[in-house]
Amino acid sequence: MQDHAQVVIIGGGIAGASIAYHLAQMGCSDVVIIEKGELTSGSTWHAAGLVGQLRSSRNVTRMLQYSVSLYENLEAETGLTTGWKRCGCLHLAGTPARLLELKKGATTARSFGLDMHIISPQEALDLFPVMSLDGIIGAAFMPSDGQADPSGLTMALAKGATNRGARIYQHTRVTGFKFKGNRITAVVTDKGMIQCETIVNAAGMWAREIGRMMGVNVPLVPFQHQFLVTETIEGLPPGLPTIRDKDSLLYYKEEVGGLVMGGYEPNGIPWAQDGIPKGFTQQLLEPDFDHFEPLAAAAMKRTPCLETVEVARLVNGPEAFTPDGNCILGPAPELENCFVAAGFNAFGIAAGGGAGKVLAEWILAGEPSLAIWPLDIRRFGKYHHSPAYNLDRTREIYGKHYTISWPNEEHHSARGVRRSPLYHQLKEKGAVYGSKFGWERASWFAPPGVEPEDELTFGLPNWFRHVGNEHRAAREKVVLIDQTSFCKFMVEGPQSPSFLNRLAANNIDRPVGSVVYTQLCNDRGGIECDLTIARIAANRFFIVTGTAFGVHDSDWIQRHLPPDTAATISDVTSAYAVINVCGPLSRRLMEKITPDPVDNNAFPFGQCRQITLGYAPVWAMRLTYIGELGFELYIPTEYASQVYERLWEAGQELEVSNAGYRAIESLRLEKGYRYWGAELSPDYNPYQAGLGFCVALDKENFIGREALRKIKIEGPGLTLCCFTLDISEPRLLFGGETISHNGNVLGVVTSGGYGHFVGKTIAYGYLPIEHANYSEGYAIEVFTETLAATRQPSALYDPERKKILI
Ligand SMILES: Cc1cc2nc3c(=O)[nH]c(=O)nc-3n(C[C@H](O)[C@H](O)[C@H](O)COP(=O)(O)OP(=O)(O)OC[C@H]3O[C@@H](n4cnc5c(N)ncnc54)[C@H](O)[C@@H]3O)c2cc1C
């Protein structure tokens, strides 16, 4: 065992091998893989080997597309057999809703540059002649998907890595770590100790336990997963595509003249909750025929040849699943030099190639070339430390692996984790709750007599009309919105102004009482964080960011805090509830219960003031995310309930009402406000996003300044555009739809929805600047249907003049 390496990777599955391969390929050959068994001896060796590409996020799809392009050439590069076959994947639809989902997928694929076309049941049968078409009403085919031998792929990646200088230590178990401050300095193994600069936890379902050893939370849960392998089936044609028959919960692939068939039962079985048995290496679990029986019965209907063919074996292998069904990648926020790549939810073979590249870039360049927020480890919060939460939610997610993914679908398990002090008050008023980052948040309010339940549909849902009423109330009167789930930080200390000004693209060094909307950019000018910074004292800043972005944003801030800087950052989310009082009558309502002046002179837009509301001391900020006059009230938690009562009572004569998060979404689309994770991400800079007004290039220095200066001079290349559909009836969009001009695909919808005040369906998306200004010819493709669209100014509504701008 050598005593030092630049990067130590724990785990010799497909993830570890791929990370080593890509690090070495990018020129970092001082890489070591430590594996307690032999390569592939975790989940990798018993995977079925289907390689699909389409996910709902463009960049995650791109990551999987990259895997395919890598696997196509790996055998030629390394000389090792990978079993890669570009056989295509056939998706079956047994219900109209499933067919719509496939059409939605085909549209999304088109916007991502992937071919997926809708075909008839007969065409599906031609591709997979051994199936029964019973109940099948349509299908989709993605020709570039494939299948591979997972062990072969991993061995080839490992060989590609060692050919470039990486080293692999098998039969070597990691038993501990040495730390200095927030860094791991060395990895302790049963064969000796190895010092390192960077450590990667790619230990599959063991990543949770390895994480515990290093103080990093890796919220995954091993689940049993089974597939059946048949003997040779006489007459089975060669070159069959893989199949996903999700309505029957099944997948198939062809293997040496027989079929591999598996699926996702609704009642998955978690495994090894008290720890994975010590000697569990290159092992399977006992086949559970009884548990598999419903899947087998469904499979015999879909592929009747299974009734007579001999079963060669039933494979039962454990695999790491996560509470949101996505894998876990990126820098662990708890440590300075640790990365995680684990929890692949049974798509680790498909994701492995791309995940290795993303991780290698992250390690060497400090960021991946693709922004992959849906997979980022910093999407998890403190509540993900709870094994009970992880188990309950992951169990539900496992059972939904193949169920229809409905727009706005909420999960039922592990609910009520974080509740605003207004939770019960709003529930009594009809709040229908959704969950985000553990918080219960009112999605909409069911009026008396209306069932407080979400209808799951791809069409206009039951809540559409009621959200419309909330939306109009916010535009015409005054509404109260509980936004307690906002993440809030306090940054303070003598050097806090200079420290924050070095991070922020906007100038935050303004007089006390100023509130500044700003992006924190990376060296390329890409938007890492999008937040509001209020200066509440000379050396004290109150930072507000979106509900789910707290861990990510505080990690970005913390990592850029130079040692010995006189500034601290603390999370004060739980200390303040937030009520947003907004709408044209909001000032009149505020005036009724505060002795402090709230007129425009005393309290102008973009300012914050400490005021008294009823009996409560409150920080009020004059801004909203909906494009109306309004006040965000940051209320010490214990006062919030009373403040709400006061506002509600005083607001009766102004016809005050409640509004929820679905109304916020449609209101912000009308006003052109951007959302980080949709319009904003490290892939885009403020000039592309139409936020150039937030970039203070005249400031002395800040991260990304040079890049942004250059972009401003040379032009941004892309620009965020707003469209409305030309049809008059309301349609909901969900993001991922295709934007085209005269049939040429130009972009993808980042956010879409219905603007209830302007009476139009709205979509946003980035277009190359040279294609952004046609007077006609634009279209948005929705469920494979092409709908004419019109390019609009970026805000459709002007609150000052109460004017619709289209
Ligand atoms: C039945 C089944 C079918 C599947 N089918 C598919 C499929 O069709 N398509 C697809 O894309 N995915 C599929 N998967 C998922 C896929 O197998 C996994 O996602 C993937 O193999 C995970 O790879 P990994 O490298 O993250 O983990 P692993 O392969 O588990 O590798 C982790 C490694 O870490 C090592 N390790 C752990 N602890 C230590 C320690 N202390 N010291 C040193 N080494 C350690 C382990 O020995 C192990 O080799 C399937 C999984 C199962 C179970």
On the 0-100 scale, what is the average pLDDT?
97
Largest sheet: 8 strands, mixed
Number of helices: 17
Low-confidence stretches: none
Helix fraction, binned, reads 10-25%
Strand content: 25-35%
Inertia-based shape: globular
The strand count comes to 39
Q: What oligomerization state is this entry in?
A: single chain
**N/C terminus separation:** 69 Å
Description:
This protein is of the alpha+beta class and 806 residues long. It is built from 17 helices and 39 strands. Strands 1, 2, 8, 9, 10, 11, 17 and 18 form an 8-stranded mixed beta sheet that branches. An 8-stranded mixed beta sheet has the order 5-6-4-13-14-15-12-16, with helices on both faces. It has a 6-stranded mixed beta sheet with strand order 28-29-30-27-21-31. Helix 2 packs across helix 8. The radius of gyration is 27 Å and the shape is globular. The model has no long low-confidence stretch (mean pLDDT 97). Bound molecules: flavin-adenine dinucleotide. Flavin-adenine dinucleotide binds next to helix 1, strand 12, strand 16 and helix 8.
Q: What key phrases describe this protein's structure?
A:
single chain; 806 residues; alpha+beta; 8-stranded mixed sheet; 39 strands; globular; binds flavin-adenine dinucleotide
Write the layout of secondary structure elements.
Elements: E1 4-10, H1 14-25, E2 31-34, E3 50-51, H2 58-78, E4 89-93, H3 96-111, E5 117-119, H4 121-127, E6 138-142, E7 146-147, H5 150-163, E8 167-169, E9 174-180, E10 183-189, E11 192-201, H6 207-214, E12 221-230, E13 242-245, E14 250-255, E15 258-263, H7 289-302, E16 311-321, E17 328-331, E18 338-342, H8 348-365, H9 387-399, H10 423-428, E19 431-436, E20 439-445, H11 464-476, E21 479-482, E22 487-492, H12 496-503, E23 515-521, E24 527-537, E25 540-545, H13 550-559, E26 568-571, E27 576-582, H14 586-593, E28 608-613, E29 616-621, E30 630-636, H15 640-650, E31 657-658, H16 661-671, H17 705-714, E32 718-725, E33 738-741, E34 744-755, E35 760-768, E36 778-782, E37 785-792, E38 797-798, E39 803-804
Parallel strand pairs: 1-2, 1-11, 2-8, 4-13, 11-18, 21-31
Antiparallel strand pairs: 3-7, 4-6, 5-6, 9-10, 10-11, 12-15, 12-16, 13-14, 14-15, 17-18, 19-20, 21-27, 22-25, 22-26, 23-24, 24-25, 27-30, 28-29, 29-30, 32-35, 32-37, 33-34, 33-36, 34-35, 36-37, 38-39
Helix pairs in contact: 1-5, 1-8, 2-5, 2-8, 11-16
Bound molecules: flavin-adenine dinucleotide.
